[in-house]
Each structure stands twice: as C-alpha cells, then as structure tokens.
Specification:
Layout: H1 5-8, H2 21-33, H3 42-45, E1 46-48, H4 57-64, E2 76-78, E3 90-91, E4 96-100, E5 105-108, E6 115-119, E7 122-125
Parallel strand pairs: 1-2
Antiparallel strand pairs: 3-4, 4-7, 5-6
C-alpha cells in the first residue's frame, strides 16, 4: 500500500487542516521567517516549493496531492516571492503566469483592527491553453 501524506504523518482519519489567516501569519509564517522548524504534522502540511520555478501548477498539485480523500482542497506552500517584473512573469516552461484575483485584504491582529498582514489570492493563467 502506498504511503500518503496523511498516513505517513499519523494524522487521524478525517483530519482537515484549515488554519485561519491570523494563524497562518502569527504562527506558521512567524516560525518560517524565524527559522524555527514546524512541528509534525504541520511540517508535511505546509511545504517549501518554488511556485515560480520550472513546474506547472498541475505538476505541483499532482506531486503534493493526498490520494486518500479524493477532494480538491487548498494546499499551503512557503515560496520565495520574485520581484515584480513585466519582463519575467512566466511560470514553468510554458507561457503561463500568476494573476491576482483581488486586491490585498487586511488580516487584523485583533479586535483593534491592527494590521497583521495581507491576504491575496492568485490564479494561474495560461493564454496558450485558452
């Protein structure tokens, strides 16, 4: 039997990783930028991946997907941002690029609406496949 991300990490059946935006910033991103290793099982749920590298998004999905549940869920990655440039916005070996779906939304730190960070959604567009 093939070991998947869930079975190899000892996660209970039905476990869903659904952190809030605040948890992602205050806990997981803080640990990453502080160079503190994520404890199990989170180290296998938030992965390092160059999303701007040679792989197309569906190749990344196929590599990291969990075959156990068959549901299409969000995946979480740490990736190094690339400097915004009109010259080099391509992803992978094709002609696609990441496009913003919305303006950045403030993630409040608490009830006082102090800004903790921003959340922004992106989609992959490949004009050659349309």
């Amino acid at each position: 039997m093939q070991e998947t991300a869930r079975s190899c990490c000892g996660l209970p059946l039905g476990f869903k990783f659904r952190p809030s935006d605040k948890e992602l910033l205050e806990y997981f991103l803080y640990m990453k930028v502080s160079r503190i290793a994520l404890p199990p099982p989170y180290d296998s749920l938030i992965r390092d991946c160059d999303l701007y590298g040679d792989l197309e998004p569906w190749q990344i999905w196929d590599f990291y997907k969990d075959d156990d549940d068959g549901e299409e869920e969000d995946m979480f990655f740490f990736t190094q941002l690339k400097k915004k440039s009109r010259i080099n916005r391509k992803v992978g070996l094709g002609s696609g690029s990441w496009e913003s779906e919305d303006s950045a939304k403030k993630v409040p730190a608490g009830e006082l609406e102090t800004k903790l960070g921003f959340k922004k959604r992106f989609r992959y567009e490949n004009k050659a496949s349309q």
